[in-house]
Amino acid sequence: METITSIKPLLAVLVSLLITPILVSSRGPNVRETWTFVAAGLKFLLVVSMVPAVLGGAEIVYTMAEVFPGVAIKFRVDALGMLFALVASSLWIVTSAYSIGYMRGLNEHSQTRYFVFFALALSATIGVAFSANLLTLYLFYEMLSFATYPLVTHHQDSEARSSGRKYLLYIVGTSIGIVLPAMLICYNMTGTLEFSRQGIFAGTEPRSTMLVLLLMLVLGFAKVAIMPLHSWLPAAMVAPTPVSALLHAVAVVKVGAFSVLRVLTGIFGIDLLSRLDLGTVICYIAAFTVIVASLMALSQDGLKRRLAFSTIGQLSYIVLGVALLSPKGMIGGMTHIAMHAFGKITLFFCAGAIFVATGKKNISEMVGIGKRMPVTMIAFFIGSLSVIGLPPTGGFFSKWYLVLGTLQADQMPMLIVLLGSSLLNAAYFLPIVYRAFFCTAEESMFPNTVQEAPVWCVTPLVITAVGSVALFFYPTVFLQLAELAIGK
Amino acid sequence: MNAHYPALLVTVPLLSGFVISTAGWLNKRFCFPIAVAALAVSAFSCVGVLLQVIEQGAVIYKLGAWEPPFGIVYHVDHLNGLVLVVVSMVALINLIASKRTVQEEFPEKLGPFYTMYVFMCTGLLGITVTGDAFNLYVLLEITALSGYGLLSMSNNDRSTFATLNYLYMGTIGACFYLLGVGYLYIVTGSLNMRDIAQILPSLYGSKAVVAAFIICLVGVWAKMAFFPLHGWLPNAYTFASSAASGLITPLVTKVMIYVMIRLILTIFTPAFAFSVVLVSKPIVWLAVIAIVMGAVLALASRNLKKMLTYIVVAEVGYMVGGAWLGNRIGMTGAILHIVNDALMTLCVFLAVGNIVYKIKDTGFENLQGLFRKMPFTMGAFVIGAMSIIGVPPTCGFFSKWYLISGGLQAGQYGFVAALLFSSLVSVVLFFRVFEIGFYEPLADHHGHGHSAPQPEPQPQMHPMMDEAPVSMLVPLMVVAAGLVLVGMYTGDIVEHIVRFAIPNALI
Amino acid sequence: MEDIVQTVVAKYNYWIYITLMMLGLYAMIAKNNLIKKIVGMNIFQTAIILFYVSIGVKKNATIPIMQEVHGHAVNVAAYHNPLPHVLMLTAIVVGVATLGVALAFAIRIYNQYKTLEEDEILAQIRTREEQMGKI
Questions:
Q1: A186 to chain B: which residues are within 8 Å by CB?
Q2: Tens digit of pLDDT per residue, chain B (507 long)?
C-alpha cells in the first residue's frame, strides 16, 4: 500500500472554509454566488485529482498535529473516503445552483448566512470523508453539527426553534454523551484511534465489552438516524429544501452512515466482528429501522416528511449492507451511499421545485401536477425508481449487491427484509407519480398549462436524474472504490 | 538582561504602578501607555524565561544574591513558566481590549484603575514565580487587595457589597494559608519551598504536617472558590466592570489552582499528598459536586455574566478534581486546563465586555438579535462557548480529554460522569443564549422585553450591524484564534512543557 | 485527665489563638452589623499573628537585639527567634491595609444604603431588583 504525503486533502477541506470571509464581504448576490461556484468547483477538482492515485491502490496522507500520544489530527484519502467525497463534492455544485433558484424564487432572507454555513458544512463533510482516525472524524462530525444548526433553523420562527432544539438534543447529546466516552475508552484500552483494516483491538477483550462499545459507537453517531434516535430527521424538514436536499439526503445523514462504516471496518475490523458474531446484532437493529421507517413513510402526507422517513430506511440499508460482513453486501452498502444520494437529491429537488412553483407541500394536494410540471415529475419518477431499486437506475445496482450479500452471508431474514422494504418503497412512491400524471380533468388540482419552476431549480434536478440513470450504466468508479475499500 | 527575567517580570509592573499613580495626577493620558509598556516588558520576560526553562531546565534567581533558604528565591520551572506566560499574556490582551470601556465607565479614575491593574499583575506574577512560601502569602495579599479595589470600582450599585463579601472570604483564605505556612515553619524551620520539601519526608508521620497540608489547602480553596467555599464568586465577578472581570475572572482562580498544584507536587510531594493523607477520593467527590452545582446554578441564571461566573465555579471543580485524581494524566489535564481555561474565560468575558459596551446590560431579555447586530463579537463568543463545551479543535476539548482519561484510569467514574454532564449542560446553556441572539427580533436599547411584530427585513447584505470598536474587536479575535491554535498545539505543549512539570514519581 | 490538663497548660498559646480565631469567625458569620463583621475579621487575623509570635519564644531567652558582639558567634539559644516577628510585621501591615479597605467599603455601603445592618441591605437590594424587573 503506497502512501503519498500531500497537502491536497487539507486543501480540499479548507477551500470552502477560506471563502467564507469573501462570501461575507461580497458586494452583491451575484458575486457571492459566483464565489460559491468557484469554491465548489475547486473542491470537486481537488477531490477528483486524487482519484487516480487512490484507484491505483495508494493512500494520500497528511498529518496536521499530534495532539495526544499516538493520535494526531490527520487526513487519509483511501477508497471509502474517496467514494463519499466524490458524492458530496459533486452534489454540492448542483445544490448551489439549485439554491440560487430556490432562495431567489422565494425571496428568502439571510441568504449570505445560508451560503456561508453551507460552505462550512461541506468543509466539515469532506473533513469527515478524509479523516484518518476517530478523533479527526469526531472533530469534523461536531463541526458539521454546529455548522448545520443555522441552516436547519434558517426560517427563525417558533417551528424552526423547536426543531433546532430537537436537532441539537439528538445529535450533540449523543456525540458528547455517548461517542466521546466510547472513544476515550477505546483510546485507554488500545492507545490509538487510527482506522486500519484489522481494527484497533487486540482481539483478547471480552465479547460483552466489545458489544457495548460497538453499540455505543453505532448508536452514538445519531446522524445515521437508526431508530430510536431518528426523530430529528423529520423535524429537520422545516429547513429550506436545498438544505434538506444536500444535507439531509446526502451530507449530514451520509456522514452518520459513513462514520458507522468507519467504526465497523476501521475500528473493530471485519475479522473481529465476524469472529465475535457482532455483525448480526447490527443487522437486526438496521433491519428494524428499515421496516419501521418504510411503514411510517406510508402514513405521511407531507412530501418532505415522507422523503425523510424514506431516507431513514435507506440509511439503514447502508449499515445493513456492511454489517452483513460479506464482500457483496459490503460493496452494496458502500455503493448505496452514492446511488441513494443521487436518487434522493433528485426527489428533494422536485419537492422544492413543486413548492416554489405552486406553494404545495402535501401529497394530497398534488393530484394532477404532472400536467403542469412534467419535467419535474418525470425526474421524480426516475428518482423514485432509484430509491426503490429498479433498473435502469443506479439504485438497482446497489440493491442487487445487497441482495447477493444477504445470500452470501447466509442471512435469509435480511433478504426478506430487503425485498419487503422494496415493495413498501414502491408503495409509498409510485402512487404519487401515478396520481400526478394519470387523473381525470376534474380531479386535477392544476390548470393544464405547463408552468415549471425557475430554470435554476429545474436544471439541477434534471442533471441529478440523468446522473441516477447514468450510474446504472457506468457505476465503475464507485464500484472500483468499494472493491478497494474492502480489500479485493 | 537575560539573567534578570524572573525579577523583571515582577518589578517592572510594581514600579510602574507608582509611576502611573504619579502620572495620573499630571495627565491622565499617560496612564494607559505606561501600563501597556510595563505589561509588555513583563510578558516579554515571561516568554523569555519560559524559553530558558525549556532549553536548560529550572531557572533559579536569588533576590539580592542571598542564598536560599535564608534569602527569597524565584524558582521558575516548567510548571510556573507556563502559567507565567499565560498570566502575562491574558493581562496584556485584556488591558488593550478594555481601553475604551475604562475610558467610558470611569474617566476620572484612570490613574487609580491602572495602578491597581498593574499591582494586581505584580501580585499574580509574583505568586507564580516565587519559590518561598511566605513570600507567596505577601503576594497573595497584594493580589487580593488590588483585586478588591478593581472589583468595587464599578458603575454597578451592588459591586461594593459583593466585594466586601469577597473580602471576608479572601481574608479567611489567606489567613488559613498563613497559618499552614506557620505550622510548616514550626516543624521544618524553613520557608523556602524546596527546602521544606527536602526536610519534610522524615516528618510525614507527624500530625502537624498533615494539619499544615489541610489548612493550606482549605485556605487556597477559599481563594479559588472551590465548593463549598464558592459563594462569594458569582456576585463579586458579575457586578464588576468589564475591564476588571476580564482581568480577574480568567486569572485569579487559575493562579490559586497553580498554588494548590505547587503544594501537591513540590512542597508536599505526590507521595505525601496521595498516599499518606488519604483525602483524594473525598476531594474528587467535592469536585464532582462543584461541577454539578455550578452547571445547575448556571442553568438557573437569567443573566449572561452571572451564568458565566457559575461556569467558572464548575471549571474550578474540573481542575481540582483532575489534580486530585492522583495520576499523571489527570494532573496533565489539570495543568493544561489552567492554560485553556484562562484563555477561554478571557475570550467569553471580552465578548461580554463588548456586549456590555453596546447594550449596557447582560440580562437575557436584552440579548435579542445580537447575532445580527454584533456578528464578529458573537462569532468569537461562539468559539469560546465551543471551547467551554469541549468541541474540537478548540483547546477546551483537549484538556477535557485528559481529565476524562485520568478519571477513567483512576476509576473515578463519578468525575467522568460529572464532566460529561457539564459538557451537555454547557450546550444547553450556550444555545439558550444563541437562540435569544439568533431568533428574537431586535429589542430597543432601553431593554423592554416585549417586541411588536416587525416587518420581514429586506434581503440585505449587511443589515443593521452595530459592532464594538476595532480596538475591542481585534484582541477578541486574537484570543478566539488562539483557542484553536492552542488546541492544535496541545501535543507540543504537553510534550515539551507539561510533561516536565510533573515529577516522575507520579504515574 | 492528667494528660489533658498537661496538653492544655503546656500548649496554652495554641488554645488562646484557637479561641480567638473561633471568636473572630463567629463574629464574621453570625453578626449582622458590617462593622462587627470587620472587627471579627481583624480578631481572626490577630489570632494568627499572636500565634506566630508565640512560637518564637524560647526558655531563658531575651529579646532579639544584639549587644556588643565582639567577633565571636552569636549564642542563638539566648535570643528569641526574630524571624516570626519579622514575618508578622508584614502580616500586621497587610491586616491594617485590609481593615482600611474593608472600612472604606463599609462607608461606601452606608452612603448607598443608609444602614450597616446586613439583613436590611439585602432587603433593599431585593426591592431594587424587583423594581427594576418590573419596568
A1: none
A2: 678 888 899 999 999 999 999 988 888 888 899 999 999 999 999 999 999 999 988 888 888 888 877 788 999 999 999 999 999 999 999 999 999 889 888 888 888 999 999 999 999 999 999 999 999 999 999 999 999 999 998 888 889 999 999 999 999 999 999 999 999 998 888 899 988 988 888 888 788 888 899 999 999 999 999 988 898 999 899 999 889 999 999 999 999 999 999 999 998 888 888 887 788 889 999 999 999 999 999 999 988 999 999 999 999 999 999 999 988 999 999 999 999 999 999 999 999 999 988 888 778 888 887 888 888 899 999 999 999 999 988 999 999 999 999 999 999 999 999 999 999 999 999 998 988 888 766 433 333 333 334 344 434 445 567 788 888 899 999 999 999 999 999 888 888 888 888 888 777
Q: Of all helices (H) and strands (E), which one includes residue A146?
A: helix A134-152
For chain A, domain boundaries: 278-488
Closest to B114 in 3D by CA, of B126, B128, B96, B127: B96
Chain A interface includes B416 (CB < 8 A): yes
Rg (CA), chain B: 22
Which residues, in sequence order, are CB contacts of B69 under 8 Å at separation 6+?
Answer: B190, B191, B192, B195
Residues of chain A positioned with their CB less than 8 A from the CB of B457: 109
Please, do chains C and B touch (3+ CB pairs < 8 Å)?
yes
Which one-letter amino acid corresponds to residue A434?
A: Y
ipTM of the prediction: 0.91
Task: Kindly state whether residue B74 falls inside one of the protein's structural domains.
Answer: no
Place of cell 472587627: C39
Residues of B in contact with A110 (CB under 8 A): 459
* Cβ distance of C109 and B157 shorter than 8 Å: no
Q: If interface means Cβ-Cβ distance under 8 Å, which residues of chain B face chain C?
A: 134, 137-138, 141, 144-145, 148-149, 152, 157-158, 160-161, 163-164, 167-168, 171-172, 174-175, 178-179, 182, 185-186
Residue A56 CB contacts under 8 Å (≥ 6 apart), including other chains: A2
Q: Is residue B126 part of a domain?
A: no
Identify the domain containing residue B359 by its residue range. 288-442+462-507
Give me the residue from B393, B423, B427 closest to A73, CB to CB.
Answer: B393
Total domain count, chain B: 1
- Measured between beta carbons, the chain B residues lying within 8 angstroms of A108 are 459
Report CB contact under 8 Å: B145, C84. Answer: no
Task: Kindly state whether residue B53 falls inside one of the protein's structural domains.
Answer: no
Contacts A111 to B, Cβ<8 Å:
459
CB B103 within 8 A of CB B44: no
Note whether A177 contacts B420, CB cutoff 8 Å: yes
- Residues of chain B with C-beta less than 8 angstroms from the C-beta of C55: 182, 185-186
Spatial separation of the C-alpha atoms in residues B1 and B12, rounded to whole Å:
13
Identify the structural domains of chain C with CATH numbers, from first to last: 2-63+74-134 (1.10.287.3510)
Any residues with CB less than 8 A from the CB of A312 and at least 6 apart, and which?
A225, A227, A230, A233, A289, A293
Does some domain include residue B385? yes
Name the residue facing B171 among C41, C112, C121 (closest C-beta). Answer: C41
